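User: Hey, my collaborator sent me this sequence without any context and asked if I could get a structure. I don't really work with proteins. Can you help?
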Amino acid sequence: MTGAATRVLALLAERGETLAVAESLTGGLVAAVLTSVPGASRSFRGSVTAYATPLKRELLGVDGALLAERGAVDAAVARQMATGVRRALGADWGVATTGVAGPDPQDGMPVGTVFVAVSGPDGAENVTALRLNGSRADIRKESVRNVLALLSDKLGKNTSAQDTEENGGN
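Assistant: No problem. I've predicted the 3D structure and written it out in structure-token form, which is a compact way to encode the shape of the chain:
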């Protein structure tokens, strides 16, 4: 996971952009992995661990009606968390994790149901639905790996597009 965090932070630093993290089931693990990388402070703004559902609304601006209707384990909730943390912490990029690590189902969703999301400066938002297996620790670890991979992919694609534009489309 540290390799993925190193790549994400290097891409952000190269672009002069910043990152904020909103976490639920991962409980701060995404932020911990990012801050384990020396120099993370160049790009990492901070995180909000909104473990309790009401905090998703109060701190991240997730729509209360959405939370009441669908619960916290939902693609739209993940998307709004990522956008909300970008706004709340003044970052170019936001990522979010929400899901069920176990041992019991939550909001009618089985253990291993996870949504990871990325929100970027271009207004694009990506959400990935995951169905993970394993222990609670395994599910949390895989959630971190997946959200960093999603962001890395998005940053890599945007970097390639910028390079093409800067090099006259060649």
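In plain terms: Residues 113 and 131 are 5 Å apart (CA to CA). You can pass these tokens on to your collaborator as they are.
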